[in-house]
Design a protein that fits this description.
heterodimer, A: about 300 residues, mainly alpha, about 75% helix, about 0% strand, B: about 475 residues, alpha/beta, Rossmann fold, 6-stranded mixed beta sheet, about 35% helix, globular, AAA+_ATPase (chain B), nucleotide-binding (chain B), Ribose ABC transport system, ATP-binding protein RbsA (chain B), sugar transport (chain B)
């Protein structure tokens, strides 16, 4: 049975390996400390945003505001957190709490998460524009240092991805609370009957999503050194794609944090790979979609084979 | 000690529950003491589920009182419920599902004790179960899931199970496994535990219950020790007169030409009711699914379909939960009545009204949502959906699961009538008594047909004989 559990992670891992091999074949110079760092640099915030999305998908909802939320966090980080750290930190904490409250409200009023989060994305976007009407700001020094640190063996992007994967794996898969949270996605009624306050669990899942969204925004500013209100809008779809690419399912609480991180890395790599192919940027989005469909088709074929066996 | 032993675990006094004007439970007094095994019977809609939910703390009573001997909540008093509709988290492993209802499992390394506890519980209730605690629940069969759920109900979970409510626990188990469960229930009660056992199979009730409580329209109409009832007396108390046995003498019914033949040897003639039997999970459902898929196209829906399917797993394959009863019935016939691709509303309504009457769907208004119906009536809707089409062949995959006796009789009669008009039924059932009503029976064993029985040969003994391998091959 552990074979099945492993199955879910094999496909994302193989997809990443194949893409990586193709990239190295196209561009052998990428096969270095510096090259890897360059390839995967922007994967860190995407991986964090993907984990945030995964927390929501884990409880059978979907979050269309991730991109706007990460952009807002980036704007706060590049302005308030830099100029007045205490105020900035308080704002970020307030954002996390807001997320948790949003989860509780969605559950209590039985609202469709897709609509609520879509609405909230405009709120986040509006605040972000209010804080930073034109691109600018600057990254706090410590954050910049953290994101550009050069660990000895592997580049920062790779180390960070591994750390994110391990931490969230323990949080979501190994821990008792994570198990109950996945249970909410699998069968909320059964969790409720066992005496758990589902509303608090949902708030917790949303709060965790908020936390990882904040981390994503901060990591992004650490890399780009400045922010803009639309800096991360594409993260919404990237994060959903990352979760699914990593072996997660839209419903039923079937998620894999390791897979989600791998999915985020694959998506980042896919765009670099397409640049190496000298594909015109006009075609890149379409090609990225094609890669996504390819991987998902492979997964479907795998699953059908398994069902027959 | 003796005083403590005889104190009831839970006592209800005049407990009532109203949902708006509907009196689901209308003043019920009941006490359950250690060692009791209470058989709870009643028709669908008699208030069994409501009573269960009051006892397990899922609902608060509108009036009356529920007291536990520990003075606290149902959970604290060791009251556990195993529900009819499966309530595990399918995405988690067996051991993780135990964790959901076992809050004392905490800290790092909780998996090992969780695994040990669920394995122990499974071993106790179902020896030789062969279920891996690390298996994800959605890789298990329905019977295995039910077994896991029962095992979780009986597992100590930090405290001790003192009162376990089993709601139709055997509906998806085959006879051997069900017997293991009944044996465990008897052991459990002998050891000072208490069980509330709900089942439509009266044989099981008589088998395990020390006391039988009959519910009707939200009230207890009879409560006696089990040996104070006869089977007929129990059925009478439930208030449903079993329909007279149909003329079983009509042996000389003639059938038309053969219209179904599958590679594995399944065949059926016009006007015939063909039963599929054998132990659960021996390929009957798969054979029917293959047959159905081979006669239909995924691309093109015909105006007059050759075969229609009645699903047994209602919630998964059957009902459209967001739709009304009307639309759930008419989905199969939209093509027939459609003109220029538009639905003929009047014809749709007429059909639904007709079938509501013919099959007896208990609702005031067919535009009510399907989920407002009880399980048995939802199943009737599925029958209506299939029968309303013009298809000559109707495939039924264990459609009577968790359906009450009255509904069953209604549906049997309907099947007989439709067969007499020349329609063919292929009917897989886990209940031998149903299969015995068929004209011809195929018994499956290990995904193959092991016997074909006709006429007087269709007896429980012959079916069992063919279901089990009698001679040792090697």
């Amino acid at each position: 049975m552990s074979l099945l559990a492993r199955y879910r992670i094999i496909l994302p891992a193989v997809s990443l390996a194949v893409l990586l091999a193709a990239t190295f074949w196209m561009q052998p110079r990428a096969m270095s400390y510096f090259g890897l760092n360059l390839l995967f640099n922007l994967a860190v915030p995407i991986a964090l945003a993907t984990i945030a999305q995964m927390m929501i998908i884990m409880v059978n909802d979907i979050d269309l505001s991730v991109g706007a939320f990460v952009s807002l966090v980036a704007c706060i980080t590049a302005t308030f957190l830099n100029d007045a750290p205490v105020l900035g930190l308080a704002m970020l904490l307030a954002l996390i709490v807001t997320y948790a409250v949003m989860g509780a409200v969605i559950h209590a009023l039985d609202l469709p998460a897709i609509v609520v989060t879509l609405g909230m994305s405009f709120v986040w976007g509006g605040i972000a524009l209010f804080i930073l009407p034109s691109p600018g700001g600057s990254s706090p020094g410590w954050l910049r240092t953290l994101m550009t640190v050069k660990p000895p063996l592997a580049p920062m992007a790779v180390v960070a991805s591994v750390v994110i994967a391990v931490v969230t794996h323990f949080l979501v898969i190994r821990s008792g609370l994570g198990t109950v949270l996945r249970g909410v996605g699998g069968n909320a009624r059964s969790v409720q009957r066992a005496g758990w306050p589902v509303i608090r669990l949902k708030a917790l899942a949303y709060g965790l999503a908020g936390l990882f969204g904040v981390l994503a925004g901060m990591a992004l500013v650490g890399l780009t050194t400045s922010a803009d209100a639309n800096i991360a809008l594409r993260y919404t779809l990237l994060s959903i794609a990352g979760v699914i690419l990593g072996g997660g399912e839209f419903t039923g609480g079937k998620v894999s944090p390791t897979g989600a991180v791998i999915g985020a890395l694959t998506l980042t790599l896919a765009s670099s790979f397409l640049s190496f192919l000298r594909l015109s940027p006009d075609w890149q989005i379409g090609a990225q979609g094609a890669i996504l469909i390819l991987v998902l088709t492979a997964r479907l074929v795998f699953r059908q084979k398994r069902a027959e066996a | 000690m003796t005083d403590h032993e005889s104190a009831p675990i839970v006592a209800l006094t005049e407990a009532a529950k109203h949902f708006g004007p509907v009196r689901a439970l209308d003043g019920v007094s009941l006490s359950v003491a250690p060692g009791d095994c209470i058989g709870l019977v009643g028709h669908n809609g008699a208030g069994k589920s409501t009573l269960v939910n009051l006892v397990n703390g899922g609902l608060a009573p509108s009036s009356g009182e529920i007291r536990f001997d520990t003075g606290g909540t149902a959970l604290g008093a060791g009251v556990r419920s195993v529900f009819q509709e499966l309530s595990l988290c399918p995405n988690l492993t067996v051991a993780e599902n135990l964790r959901i209802s076992h809050s004392a499992l905490k800290g790092p390394g909780w998996r090992r004790p969780a695994r040990a506890e669920i394995r122990q519980s499974l071993d106790t209730v179902f020896p030789d179960h062969g279920i891996d605690p690390d298996a994800e629940v959605d890789t298990l069969s329905i019977a295995e899931r039910q077994m896991v759920e029962i095992a979780i109900g009986f597992a100590p979970r930090g405290t001790e199970a003192r009162l376990v409510i089993l709601d139709e626990p055997t509906s998806s188990l085959d006879a051997g496994i069900a017997e293991q469960l009944l044996a465990h229930v008897r052991r459990f009660c002998a050891g000072g535990g208490a069980v509330i056992f709900i089942s439509h199979m009266l044989g099981e009730i008589f088998d395990v219950a020390t006391r039988i409580v009959v519910l009707k329209d939200g009230k207890v109409v009879a409560e006696r020790p089990a040996d104070g009832f006869t089977r007929q007396g129990l059925v009478d108390a439930m208030g449903h007169v079993t329909a007279e046995e149909g003329e079983t003498s009509e042996t000389a019914r003639s059938f038309g030409a053969e219209i179904v033949r599958s590679p594995e040897g399944l065949s059926a003639r016009e006007g015939e009711v063909v039963g599929l039997s054998g132990l659960a999970g021996h390929g009957q459902a798969a054979a029917l699914a293959r047959l159905y898929l081979s006669r239909t196209s995924s691309w093109h829906a015909r105006k007059a379909p050759e075969v229609v399917f009645v699903a047994g797993d209602r919630t998964r394959d059957g009902i459209l939960p967001l739709w009304s009863i009307l639309r759930n019935v008419s989905i199969s016939i939209l093509q027939q009545g459609a003109r220029w691709g538009l639905v003929d509303r009047a014809a749709e309504e007429a059909t639904a009204a007709e079938w509501k009457k013919r099959i007896g769907i208990r609702t005031d208004d067919v535009t009510n949502p399907i989920l407002s119906l009880s399980g048995g009536n939802q199943q009737k809707v599925l029958f209506a959906r299939a029968l309303a089409s013009s298809a000559p062949v109707i495939i039924m995959d264990d459609p009577m699961r968790g359906v009450d006796v009255g509904t069953k009789q209604d549906v049997y009669a309907m099947i007989r009538a439709e067969a007499a008009r020349g329609r063919t039924f292929l009917w897989y059932s886990t209940e031998t008594e149903e299969v015995c009503q068929c004209d011809r029976v195929f018994v499956f064993r290990n995904h193959e047909i092991s016997a074909e029985l006709t006429g007087a040969d269709i007896t429980e003994e012959r079916i069992l004989e063919a279901s089990f391998e009698m001679q040792e091959a090697s």
